[in-house]
């Protein structure tokens, strides 16, 4: 649990340290202007912007029932953040598995990517797709005619 918050907390701590130094040297306006990007980076890399993660087995079960893709991700991954942001609201329709919290999910990603934990890995109808385009993932959500 704590591992997922390491990167966001580093952004907050580093930004606070730099902003504190600037506060005394150049004033509160400059310090606040610098602190905001650090806080934004912390928010983007935190698990808060991702839908609630579930276990890999539960995601597979739900996907078998509703046909929606499963996305394997990890906090701090810039490609996962990019996919999540480009999906927008449709990201809530996917089943998200945090591979740092779920060993079965990490094992599935390693099996799909020749032993590497390359994320995001999106599984559609049992077939893994590594780092797919957000438009393609969105197409997988639309009902088949």
From TrEMBL:
InterPro entries: Glutaredoxin (IPR002109), Grx-like_ET (IPR051548), Thioredoxin-like_sf (IPR036249). Keywords: Membrane, Transmembrane, Transmembrane helix. Residues 70-127 form the Glutaredoxin domain. Coiled coil: none annotated. GO terms for biological process: cell redox homeostasis. SUPFAM superfamilies: Thioredoxin-like. One of its GO terms (molecular function) is electron transfer activity. The chain crosses the membrane at residues 29-50. This is Glutaredoxin domain-containing protein. It comes from Streptomyces vinaceus. The lineage of its organism: Bacteria, Bacillati, Actinomycetota, Actinomycetes, Kitasatosporales.
